[in-house]
Amino acid sequence: MSNVRDFGAMGDGQHDDTAAIRHALEMHDGVLHFPRGEYVVSQTIVIALKDVGRTTIHGTGGTAKILMTGPGPAFEFRGTHTTSADPGSFRPDEWERERMPTLRDIEIEGRHPEADGVRIIGVMQPTLTGVLIRKVRHGVHITERARNVLISHCHIFHNTGIGVYLDRVNLHQTIITGSHISYNRLGGIRIENSEIRNLQITGNDIEYNNNRAIKVPDADDVPTAEIYIDCGETGTVREGTICSNTIQATYSPNGANLRIIGQSTAERQKAGMWTISGNLIGSQATNIHFTSARGITLEGNYIYSGHHRNLLLEQCKSILVGTNCFGHNPDYKEKELCTGIRLVDCTDCTLTGLQIQDAQAGEHTVAGVVPIQRDGLIECVNCQRLTVTGIQVLEGSPYAMKLENCSDTLITGCSFLDTRATPLTKAAIHWTGSGTGNAIAHCRSNRPFVIEAKVKLGENFLDA
Question: 151 has which bridge partners?
Answer without folding.
Answer: 128, 176
